[in-house]
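Go through the following before class.
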Amino acid sequence: MTFTSSSVQSSDIGLSYPDMLTVIQESYDGILVTDRNGNVIMVNDSYLRIIEHDVAGINFPEYLQTIPYRKAACLDVLKKKKRVNYTHFDLIPGKTISVTSSPIFDEKGEIRLVVTNVRDMTEMMQLKEQLEEAQEMERLFYKHLEGLKHSNDGPIAVDHSMKKLIATALKVSSVDVTTLITGESGVGKEVVARYIHTCSNRKSEPFVAVNCGAIPEQLLESEFFGYVAGAFTGASKNGKTGLFEAANGGTLFLDEIGDLPFNLQVKLLRALDSGEITKVGANTPIPVNIRLLAATNQDLEAMVDENKFREDLYYRLNVINLRIPPLRERRADIRPLSMYFLNICNQQYGQNKRINLEVLRALEKYDWPGNVRQLKNVIEHMVVLSSGDYLELSSLPFCDSVKRKESDHTGDAVTINRYVPMPQAVEEVEKKIIGHAMQGNTSSRQIAKAIGVDQSTVVRKIKKYGL
């Protein structure tokens, strides 16, 4: 403890002078005493430990001119003549510090001394954040626990772009318009198709889904339209009902329609235009009333240019186009989807596994080339292999790749590849840094802690850059 001896008076209430010094020194909280001019006359070791600056014997007004931070509670007391309380998130990087300064008045009502108490709130704030995160996890868990019972509520969507797509799908469901659903493999095209059917006036009729790439080419026509008895060698003597007939009155969903052979595209187009099909081996057309939904992960427009897909069929299918974004473009959906699949796997395997934030953050950092289908498989993999009550990071199939990706980011934080005015460059870097921090942190306080600025700055920058 450092002090100016002429400023310290012995106690008259039973504490000796050494006892008083020992009490102050042994305080876990930091204690600073300044006079009316801002001179430090006493400071204990806890204050120096928390603040990480040697302020013994300094004059605070002069000291503040030498550092970037220009605010001091002990000086604000002199202006306001009353107790002040501050919480600093950026005074010491990585620390949250609570500061309380109180005035001591003389017999004339003038401030004689200012006593400042500082407390390191970092651990408490971390515990608070962990509690808030745990409460959020519980909320998500129980919210999506009901998901299996309410599957008609629609696909899980938290991300803004996905919410917008689901709203469009709901609007489209009310009319029998042909709809083309596009997106990478595994994004959930069939889920959206089933949602459209469930919300339509055909919901009580059949929903027939077929993967065009999974049926041998020589069998496609008979699978689509059926055949009559004796239509070809090996045909059933009773004939066969095709997919169009099976879906009559309901919805036919043709997945991976880009794999449909060119010659069958003509017959599909004719069936859509005429509302009739002709079975293989038959001469009489059969009327069918279906709603067609098609999906593909291919670029049909490019296939048209390459003469691999009929242009007239493309325009017939592409009346409404719903593009489902890949999972890496809607990372906000990863948490609720993970919880949803965890519930499914728990029921399927008779488990009661939970998921912690460490695993969730690893899932959010991954790019998911296999999209939602891959996420479902990963959760199932972890439920089976994790031995404890919680899914373990060690059982994450791509755990090593996530670590490698994180280590790849330990090099230069900023790469210069063009010249721009300095103010513009600063804004671009700020926007990228905050945007990157938002991917792995859920609150402005966490973001502020991650990038080493105060929370108010983060809130202001997020609003400024429209993040």
